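Annex B. Sample input.
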Amino acid sequence: MAALLGACSGGGSSTPSATSTGEGDATAAPSSVEATAAPSNDGEAGGWCAPGARAEGDYTLTFGEMGAATDEWSQHMGRTWRHYLPFTFTNTMDVRCVFGLTVDLAVDGESGRATDGFSVPLLPGQSFSGQMFDLDGVLGLPDAEVVNTSAVLAPSVTKATSGRYFGDYYDLTFEVGERDGVGSETVVPVVVTTTGVGAGMPDRLFSARDDRFALLGLDAQGNVITVAHNLQEALPVPGESTIWFALAGGGASGYERELMPMSTYDSVVSWTFVAYPYFTDLDK
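Annex B, continued. Sample output.
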């Protein structure tokens, strides 16, 4: 088993809820799970973080021991087993924020052996857990569940940025549909009905024709265990749209791939749907 140096800090089955609905950016949940209201929108000083670099104290990032999995990603790699480092990232600020992280993996003191990263919107105190790095090629591991290596692994954050997480930018309801496709090519539709723009939200820049979208799967504690992104034409207000998400990211490696296997979706107990303009007046 590889040795892990410390932790970084500051540096295809059915959809769990095929017909979930929810208000705005609030969590939509199965009938047996209570939906969680979105936070209030009280401006950059107390509601959402300012865009820019993030430093120690704004978040924590911890890694566990090397894990093994046999899934759609190992199949893409032409292997039965793949190996990774599990991680948990937490927003330690008192405002919601869209985090972007780049993480370097050093092996036996040599940096740059692998690079990974993610983008995720998080509420204050909320965590995101996933799997980082394809260790098999980096370490030359055999195709087996249990492997032994003397390599010393040292992940470290090389870039941490933030963007505004508006919360309920739109007044809307949404419904998560059935999954379509197999393995890494699985997609899911989200039908969104808008009735207006939330009170106190900044105006969309005239040139910003697109919206950013995220579909977050939450566990029973309200933490993020799956994340899928999309960027497409802005939601009509009022109106109805269908947003498609490639649940696994649509690719087998690098930044195309989300950092969790498809089996993680079986543990999702509620959804959060995020939608907001690519640029607003605050970006002038």
